[in-house]
């Protein structure tokens, strides 16, 4: 058979959200009727039937909204199936006692950034600069960004037709249900599925992967079958069966600057009216998430096993949730925090946990999967590896940029109530990029220019960094006495009235659900 007529075969090892997201994006590119390519494509996903689905509550960034939009899947279709709610904000509670002592409050927000914020972002930067000079002006992030108001007013981020501005938002969802939903969509586009427990990876003489062998359930019991392919996608989780174990690509641990490596998970009842924000509350040796779904609330405690035992972590989470006298069982999870040195090696691409994991503080896991798949599709458009080196460089840099933003949450925290928090504050194992960002901030420099200079402003941009640094109260003491005539951009632009007027175009979340 001529190569141009023989299907190019992708095999994806592992289902879950990452595997099915990759399958669906591949299918959208190469299998849908309108797809144009130089040769036919076949996509097969292999999944062990005995691997359970964790199905914890999970949050997303606005990139997931774009994912569904490009696939033509409406919120009204997938959200009820996945018990999903809208998310406009992340609220951080008790991370910086110093901010509270300065009168800035015990918590702060990191709202998602929308088009109307073009009116207010410069004012936010200006006020943060003045506050870095010791001037008393408003710097609360949620006061300068529309999604902060939507979260406070419990309004869904779906404006009326009279409000012609793009609103960005994320979601909370049951990750197990989302995987199942994506599976059905991928199968409908022509992705093939095989329940198979892979027991052997077979390499070609040049080191590439040639086929996977494993057990499938047959009429007379288990039988051994081999599946060959041109390209393999490793979604096998932390074990990294293909990229790390077979191709021996090194794993770069982030343990020196991200201490957390474990979590304990407990569900609670659903909110009568679910909030539109993820809540991240700092505890003695890490932080607890609260993710509101339609049918329940997902809760978990992310902590470092080097500082806290699993039993003590579970006890602290139960105390935090008021579940000491209940029989609700907890699940304990281990995390392998870091990334592979190259996520595309030979004829294999690693995604999801097999590619790397940065703890869930800013809900970046699915964003990193989605962006990696989309970039790979562009780089592999002609089924050649000529873009491999640049792809690996960009993905590696993206992981490091996200890591540094997360690391800053711990480095800058002013909690000192445990050895864990003191160790985070004292940690000097920071990247040169992060040192430079912090140096610019403390020297009253232009943070946006620094992020642009480093070419990392597409990951967490200037507004996100201002939310973190202002929310933590990373400011000098106020000047005494205050100079006369200091202008406050928040007041001068009447931003409170502006955003309150914007909110008139939105309805409460539960009125927007399409069930």
For the structure shown, list the relevant keywords:
35% helix, 22% strand, 7-stranded mixed β-sheet, alpha+beta, 515 residues, globular
Strand content of the residues, in percent?
15-25%
Compute the CA-based radius of gyration: 24 Å
Alpha-beta content class:
alpha+beta
If you average the pLDDT, what whole number results? 93
In total, the number of strands is 22
Distance between the termini: 49 Å
Overall form: globular
Helix content: 25-40%
- Count the DSSP helices: 18
Strand numbers in spatial order across the main sheet: 6-5-15-16-17-14-18
Q: Mind summarizing the main beta sheet?
A: 7 strands, mixed
Q: Indicate the low-confidence ranges by residue numbers.
A: none
Describe the structure.
The protein is of the alpha+beta class and 515 residues long. Helices cover 35% and strands 22% of the residues. The chain contains 18 helices and 22 strands. It has a seven-stranded mixed β-sheet with strand order 6-5-15-16-17-14-18. A hairpin with a 2-residue loop joins β10 and β11. α1 runs parallel beside α10, α6 (146-153) crosses α17 and α10 runs antiparallel to α11 (388-411). The mean pLDDT is 93.
Which helices and strands occur, and which strands form pairs?
Blueprint: E1 8-13, H1 16-30, E2 41-47, E3 57-59, H2 63-71, H3 75-81, E4 85-87, E5 89-93, H4 97-101, E6 107-111, H5 121-132, H6 146-153, E7 170-174, H7 175-188, E8 192-195, E9 197-203, E10 209-218, E11 221-228, E12 231-234, H8 241-246, E13 251-253, E14 262-268, E15 277-283, E16 286-292, E17 297-303, H9 310-321, E18 331-334, E19 338-340, E20 344-345, E21 348-350, E22 356-357, H10 365-379, H11 388-411, H12 419-426, H13 432-442, H14 447-454, H15 462-471, H16 489-492, H17 495-503, H18 509-512
Parallel strand pairs: 1-2, 1-12, 2-8, 5-15, 12-21
Antiparallel strand pairs: 3-7, 4-7, 5-6, 9-10, 10-11, 13-19, 14-17, 14-18, 15-16, 16-17, 19-22, 20-21
